[in-house]
Each structure stands twice: as structure tokens, then as C-alpha cells.
Amino acid sequence: MLPTKRLSNWLSRLSNRNAAREYYLTDIVSLAIKDGVRINTVAPNTQWEIHGVNSQRQLAELERNLQMETACRLLDTGVHLADPSRVDVRGELRCGQDVRIDVNCVFEGDVKLGSRVEIGANCVIRNATIATGTKVAPFTMIDDARIGAHCVIGPFARIRPLTELADAVHIGNFVEVKASDIGKGSKANHLTYIGDSKVGRNVNVGAGTITCNYDGANKYRTVIEDDVFIGSDTQLIAPVTVRRGATIGAGSTITKEAPVNQLTLSRARQISISNWKRPRKKAKGR
How far apart are CA 206 and CA 186, in angstroms? Predict the structure, then answer.
């Protein structure tokens, strides 16, 4: 530790009168001794901790040393790492028992994994809590969220900030969830966006469903109560509520409240035009 009041003075007195014509921070020690300041020494735990860094290559080598040390600590606590040389912890990672982490995963900030959690390859998890038995499939991003127990997330899912998933929730491929609470046993398995929403228990959200929560200036909430079934390719125009047990027909655009236990749908009438001919390209002139 350096006394702050003296540091600015010592920095101003550093010189580059040496063979390399470089300024060395370590010269501060000799300046401190000249000024009669007591020097306390600390022994490093490993040699690489005191290596110098003069290039991007050296910096990368030290980073890999640090990451390998972190990986070894995780292994010693019983965490299964598919390849200890291919995991990055950029913060604090706390794990329960029998946690499994595949290759190329990045953990940032404060991350807590419950017992028997499985993290697939190439995931990025930041400031998140993931409870017991949850499986996160490859290429999933989880940011500032709380995930319940025995959930299935991904692959290619994105869980954005202020999201909370209850137990046994399924969030599938190419599904994005933002600032939403999703109740126990609910599922959104394909190609869906859920934003600024409160979703109840045992809700099935069909493929291609989106909550239209933004009008270009303000954001609005969607409420989906328990036991709702939402058909594929549905647009829910917020603010809107879908009441308990309702079913939404596929391809609907919902702008008004959907009543309890009723089928609600909105579709244009399908027509077929006879004698219609598909346009053809005009022949190019010679």
C-alpha cells in the first residue's frame, strides 16, 4: 500500500534516465527509502504474480495464469470443468455440489450456481443466480437475472436484466426475456420475445409470439395469468391482460383483454383469387 499524499510527489520525481529510456513505477521504492518511509515487504504466492507486463502477449499470459488458478480452485471444490483452460471468471463464481461447466463459458460479476446446475458450452452469465438442477444449453446469455430450480434454458436464449424465472420454467431456442416474471411450469420454447411482462403458472407461449411493449416513447406491461395457452405467431399489444385459462388462437393480434377460459382470436378473412397470375420479369433488351 502506498500513502496517497506522497504518491503524486514520487511520480513527479520518476526519471527515464536508464538504458531503455523508460519510467519504472518500482523506482518509487527507492524514492520512499530516500524520504525515510518505512517499507513493508510481501512474499508472492506464485512467481507469475510479480511478472512484468510490457506487451499484449505478456498480459494475455498473466490473465491465463490467473484463470487457471481460479479453475483449479473450482475443481478442488468438486466443480466439473470440461476443460479448465477454457473458462473465464471475471468476478466471483460460487457453486454448489455437482456443478458441470462446459467449454468457453464466461462468468462476470457475482454469479451463484446451485447444486447440480449444468452450463453448456459458450454461455455468458453475468450477475445471476441459478438455482438447483437447472440446465443452461449452449450459446445462452443470462444478464442480471434470477433463475429458479429445474429450469431449462436455451440454446441460443437471452435472459436480460430484471428477469425472474420461477421453478421448472422452459425458455427455448431464440427466446428473449426482459424485465419479466415468469411463473412456475410456464414455457416459451421457440422464437419468442417477452418484455415488461408478468406471466403466471403453467402458461404455454407458442412460437413466434411477441409482447409489443414499446410505442416508440414509453414501455407498457403485459399480464398473462395462470393456465393460459397462446397460439403461435401472436402479438400482444401492451398494455393488455390475458385472463386465467384463456386460449389465444394462432396468428392473432390481441389489443383488448382476453376473458377467462375463452378462446380469443383475431384474423383477417382468408380469400383465394382465381385466374390470378404471378408477375413475370420483363425480358431484357439486347
Answer: 11
In the predicted model, what is the mean pLDDT of residues 13-41?
Answer: 87
- Which stretches does DSSP call E strand in 148-220? 152-153, 158-159, 163-165, 170-173, 176-178, 181-182, 187-190, 193-195, 197-199, 204-205, 210-212
Residue 1 pLDDT: 67
Provide CB contacts within 8 A for 100, sequence distance 6+: 79, 80, 82, 117, 118, 119
Examine the pLDDT at 286 and tell me if it is beyond 70: no
Check if the beta carbon of residue 107 is closer than 8 Å to that of residue 140. no
Which residue from 192, 168, 193, 189 is spatially nearest to 179, judged by alpha carbons? 193
Angle at CA 175, nearest 5°, toward 92 and 243? 110
pTM for the predicted model, two decimal places: 0.85
* The total number of residues written for the chain in this structure: 286
Q: Please state, in angstroms and rounded to a whole number, the distance separating the CA atoms of residues 8 and 13.
A: 9
Burial of 178 (0-12, 13-18, 19+ CB in 10 A): buried
Which domains does the chain carry? 4-34 (no CATH), 59-264 (2.160.10.10)
What cell numbers appear for 173 in the block?
431456442
* Residues classed as catalytic: 190
